[in-house]
Amino acid sequence: MASTIQLLCFSSLLFFSLSHAQPSFRPHALVIPVSKDASTLQYVTRINQRTPLVPVSLVVHLGGRFLWVDCDNNYVSSSYRPVRCRSAQCSLAGANGCGDCFSTPRPGCNNNTCGVSPDNPITRTATGGELAEDVASVNSTNGFNPGQLATVSRFIFSCAPTFLLEGLASGVAGMAGLGRTRIALPSQFASAFSFHRKFAICLSSSTRFDGVIFFGDGPYVLLPNIDASQSLIYTPLFINPVSTASAFTQGEPEGNGGTKISTVNPYTVLESSIYSAFTEAFISEAAARNITRVASVAPFGACFSSRSIFGTRVGPAVPYIDLVLQNESVVWTITGSNSMVEVNDDVLCLGFVNGGSNPRTSIVIGGYQLENNLLQFDLAASRLGFSSTLLGRQTTCSNFNFTSSP
Ligand SMILES: *[C@@H]1O[C@H](CO)[C@@H](O)[C@H](O)[C@H]1NC(C)=O
Ligand SMILES: *[C@@H]1O[C@H](CO)[C@@H](O)[C@H](O)[C@H]1NC(C)=O
Ligand SMILES: *[C@@H]1O[C@H](CO)[C@@H](O)[C@H](O)[C@H]1NC(C)=O
Ligand SMILES: *[C@@H]1O[C@H](CO)[C@@H](O)[C@H](O)[C@H]1NC(C)=O
Ligand SMILES: *[C@@H]1O[C@H](CO)[C@@H](O)[C@H](O)[C@H]1NC(C)=O
To answer: For the Peptidase A1 domain, which residue ranges apply (predicted)?
Structure first.
């Protein structure tokens, strides 16, 4: 494939450690399903929580700092414990204040607890929430199938009021933060079971078939028996100094500029000068291939007649987009499957949007560009592994075999 468009990025991310009582069953990895919500385009996962255990649906937030759930509605659990202020769990959460609640005691409302600030990045709302612990349980995995349930008896999370769910997919009870804090899901699971502080996401492009998130190391096997972890290319992740330096972060960078990966943006958002240069380059490469431009369909600015574009295994035959990471030999290739959005039967649009002239982050790589790509975040080694599209390797992110082994 001759013509490619390049987008330059650099990389960074973080680490940490945490210790907890050791459970008797020690899985090497865990697995949870992720579905794509058709109306919001959010990615929704499920874990089991509380006593008795109930499945809880949560919007995946790659940069989120912890798990938060609505405790005001249907939170029933005999194992709920508020986290007492000035306890080790409060410091782990970076929660310094002590709070009281002037109402009837219930989950989310207790005296002498420490509080955090659960937030909803969709509505850009944050509020106060009681830090708490309860049982959380997800399936272990050998990399091929789900195995027996692995339980963390005192999983730290935050309660939130019901209004924080506004704008989230229907049926969800909160958000699953996969960020780099010590109480985000990856670190709590890694420390509870003493496995590597790594996790991998593989988002499905379909709203009917589940993608998958793995906590811990590979193999990450997708049907027909393809270990997607073998397809990873790694790029080091640097800590983002609060400066103008370009940096690749999972979730929110501290400084302005830079690049981040976000599961709560449906499409990649580019700062307007980058957006213009990039779409112009794409339009001219497309024209050189006799691809016919048609009127734009919001929120996209570059749309084409689908009749002028052939289909291939890796999506519509359009110029490839190369995200050049660490250096020119570490390249994440975005093929038509992840660049072109079918807005109707006749029109395909370049699935990137203009973020205006002064966004906090210059490049936010969104969900559509991540689908059917395996991304592994190695928090201990500070590196990101990425596969580029798995479609070229005859599999997809919805090919994990969720049937338990007998
Ligand atoms: C917290 O303490 C205050 C003062 O003692 C009391 O009025 C209130 O009911 C208590 N709240 C809870 C949730 O126990
Ligand atoms: C998770 O483990 C439980 C208990 O072993 C099992 O019943 C359930 O089917 C597993 N879940 C999946 C999705 O396989
Ligand atoms: C584009 O169309 C022109 C005129 O029909 C033709 O000569 C040229 O070979 C085509 N280019 C490609 C890349 O298909
Ligand atoms: C590019 O970066 C990779 C990963 O750090 C490194 O292994 C490789 O030597 C670098 N190549 C060049 C040409 O600098
Ligand atoms: C999925 O895993 C189950 C349990 O190991 C196995 O019986 C089944 O054949 C697998 N499905 C496919 C399509 O390979």
So the answer is: 43-387
